[in-house]
């Protein structure tokens, strides 16, 4: 229980100054649909949607190829928001050592 408290305290300290947005909450490839014929993207399963740090939706980027995730984070503007670092922090339960 102490580790959970440490993680939550660290996460809230990191995210305290972050503008919250509507997030999907479970944003990964199983919930993203691509229609190649129409060149359209769709997203399903909004059951975990909430207002939160946008890093929550990007924690699954860790599983994608580095080039792809770098392009996504650059487009989103993570250099200013530290989005990637926060998403990794969430994904790894507060272990910032993973970034080193």
Structure description:
By secondary structure, the chain is an alpha+beta fold. Helix content is 42%, strand content 14%. It has helices at 2-15, 55-58, 66-76, 78-81, 83-91; strands at residues 21-23, 32-35, 40-43, 50-52. The protein has a two-stranded antiparallel sheet with strand order 1-4. Strands 2-3 form a two-stranded antiparallel ribbon. The longest helix is centred in the N-terminal third of the chain and has 14 residues, at 2-15. 16% of the residues are buried.
Largest sheet: 2 strands, antiparallel
SSE topology string: HEEEEHHHH
Low-confidence stretches: 96-100
- The proportion of strand residues reads 5-15%
Distance between the termini: 26 Å
Would you tell me the structural class of the helices and strands?
alpha+beta
Gyration radius, rounded? 15 Å
Adjacency order of strands in the biggest sheet: 1-4
Topology record:
Blueprint: H1 2-15, E1 21-23, E2 32-35, E3 40-43, E4 50-52, H2 55-58, H3 66-76, H4 78-81, H5 83-91
Antiparallel strand pairs: 1-4, 2-3
Main features:
100 residues, disordered C terminus, single chain, two-stranded antiparallel ribbon, 4 strands, two-stranded antiparallel sheet, 5 helices, globular
Structure described in brief:
The protein is of the alpha+beta class. The protein is 42% helix and 14% strand.
């Amino acid at each position: 229980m102490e580790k959970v408290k440490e993680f939550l305290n660290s996460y809230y300290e990191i995210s305290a100054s972050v503008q919250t947005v509507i997030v999907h909450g479970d944003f990964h490839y199983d919930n993203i649909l691509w229609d190649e014929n129409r060149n359209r993207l769709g997203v399903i399963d909004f059951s975990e949607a909430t207002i939160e740090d946008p890093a929550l939706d990007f924690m699954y980027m860790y599983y994608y190829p580095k080039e792809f995730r770098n392009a996504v984070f650059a487009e989103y503007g993570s250099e200013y928001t530290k989005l990637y670092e926060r998403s990794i922090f969430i994904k790894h339960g507060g272990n910032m050592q993973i970034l080193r």
